[in-house]
Amino acid sequence: MRIAIAGATGAVGVHVVDVARRRAHDVVALSRAQGVDLLDARAVARALEGADAVIDVSSIATTSQAASMAYFEASTANLLAGGETAGVTHHIVLSIVNIDRAPSGYYAGKVLQERLVSDGPVPWSILRATQFHEFAGQIYERGRIGPVHAVPIMRTQPVAASEVAERLVELAESDARGRARDLAGPREERLIDLVRASASAAGSRAPIISIPLPGGMGAAMRSGALLPGPDAQLGTLTFAEWIRAR
Predict the structure, then answer these.
(1) For residue 218, how many other CB atoms are within 10 A of its CB?
(2) Contact, 56 vs 79, CB < 8 A?
(3) What's residue 34's pLDDT?
(4) CA–CA separation, 41 and 114 (whole Å)
(5) Which of 52, 106, 210, 246 is the most exposed place for a label (fewest CB within 10 A)?
(6) Coil/strand/helix, residue 1
């Protein structure tokens, strides 16, 4: 198959590219590093010529609801329009477990993306996954306040990005199915514990504190509303194993 991967250089995208190539697929990498800006409709249309499937794992580094919604509205519209013109028969999107329980900030853009894809002209599948193991390091950096690192109180069940990539390529190899079975890591963790382990493995001794985020998002993070349900598919690589491997 010829598979176009949007966000090919991101945390999950690099794994999707690797998995697809190992399975002998022809990969088209859509990223700014490859000269394809997802906000450029013409560039996207050219890149999708001859593609059988699109896997969209693109993202934007923002907590702004307006910025997230604007990005996903534009990029998704370009991918769907380009895919329809190119004859793409399967559009696969990576989303987040239970985002509709906290549809604000960054998550609001992902909720919009899901709606655009499900209402769009190309047959689709949506895979919702929990946070990746890399999430702990990202939170550590984003939460820096002077010498202290603040971490939101959160119950999470992190999954390996490589296992998410395997599932996305499997979906691309099959017919469109709408909402696929959710994917999560093997066990529930506390975000503060993951961040401390990640910082320690990197040699950092900076103080790390837990804080409750305000609003609906903070409440969802603390309550476990973003954890997977009992029917979710579970990965096998724990956070501790992932840290040791790195």
Answers:
(1) 16
(2) yes
(3) 86
(4) 19
(5) 246
(6) coil
